[in-house]
Amino acid sequence: MSGWKVYDIPDQGGRVAVVTGANSGLGYVTARELARRGARVVLACRSEARGVAAVQRLRAEAPGAQAELRLLDLADLGSVREFAATLPDDRLDLLVNNAGLMALPYGTTVDGFETQFGVNHLGHFALTGLLLPALLGTPDARVVTVSSPVHAMANIDIGDLNSEQRYRRWIAYARSKTANLLFTHELARRLAVQGAEVVAAAAHPGYADTNLQTAGPRMSGRRAGERLMRFGNRVFAQSAEAGALPTLYAATAPGVRPDSFTGPSFAGWRGSPAPSWRAPWTLDDRAGELLWAESERLTGVTYEALKV
How far is 227 from 221, CA to CA, in rounded Å? Predict the structure, then answer.
């Protein structure tokens, strides 16, 4: 893993990949580099205009790339179901659960879930479950879910998953990123019990320069906060190109372990991909089981093939 770079990505010819939130930032870089190495990539995006622009840009930067746009709004379970139902392939080699929201003002999804928990976790939980038959039917498939080192700020509250008792935007974000890791942990465990070949892993970009940091202050009308985030991105963050490397490693490198967590090598902040520290509560089997059961109940998506 030491010194792993984008040119170390193995040939992806013949593979089919879905990348959520692929119109910009980490998701765009991930989709482009997979396509550049031969994968047929579905860019799953909420905005048609931004998605079309991303596909055009990708094809210009990676001539000959196989890339297509399909609309997906993770804040709407109806959209998630429609996306999964209309995906034309029975084959799916790679699902990258990349899309996310960070530190937003309180809001709810179409289905009434707190927005960050609903999009960052529940939307991806439902999507993965609905695409599970295609993943299970594809040799050596992978599910890579993007979390964050900010998960260390808070464990989930199983009694208040939607932050109805008290909402603090950074704590809600941290809990959603803990949920990403607990989901990966429980998914990996269930796949192992069933003897499935699918590898479930997680990754994080460290501190990368994307529009994720500025969305919250902008939506809150906090112009000073938005300017501060832009300054931090410019001075301290690594590029989206570098930030996508841990995800690309988890998605493509040989020998990636189930339930591994890959991030930047230097203090989890920047650098080439390396094993990343994670909070002990993200490896708690009982918490993983409880979150899984509640996620099935809330989304109505049940993983029948992985019942334990």
Answer: 11
